[in-house]
Amino acid sequence: MFLPNPNRELPDHFLAFANPTRLRILERLSVNDLAEHLRMSQPRISWHLRMLRVGGVVRTRRDGRQVYCSLDVENIARERAHLDQMLGIEDRMKVREEVGA
User: Fold this and answer.
1) Does residue 38 sit within a domain?
2) Do residues 46 and 31 touch, judged by C-beta distance below 8 A?
3) 71, β-bridge pairs
């Protein structure tokens, strides 16, 4: 489903945002806090964090047994720009600037 594939890079990124649990995870980004707050098991939280990581929404850093997560702001911005380009939003913005709208 979320296997790395260059042809699906953009859909995976936005699918990572498509689950309410993953959106709530982004508010905390600590597996133990999340498990307690969301009343879910640690493996289930880890699975959702993996989906966010594969989708390019979060990045992880391991320090011993502890894994730290943070938003991948650069990748989110890059994917947003890619989506804007695909939708022609960039071109429309240029046209608006040219006509003074």
Assistant:
1) yes
2) yes
3) 58
The total number of structural domains that make up the chain: 1
Q: Is residue 29 part of a domain?
A: yes
Distance of CA 98 to the CA centre of its chain: 33
Length of the chain as a residue count: 101
* pTM for the whole structure: 0.55
- Retrieve residue 97's tokens: 């600037």
| pLDDT for the residue 58 | 87
Instruction: Say how far apart CA 16 and CA 45 lie, in whole Å.
Output: 14
pLDDT digits (tens, 9 = 90+) for 28-76: 667 777 788 888 998 998 898 888 888 888 888 877 877 778 888 898 8
Q: Which helix (H) or strand (E) holds 46?
A: helix 42-54
CATH of the domain at 18: 1.10.10.10
- Position 14, amino acid: F
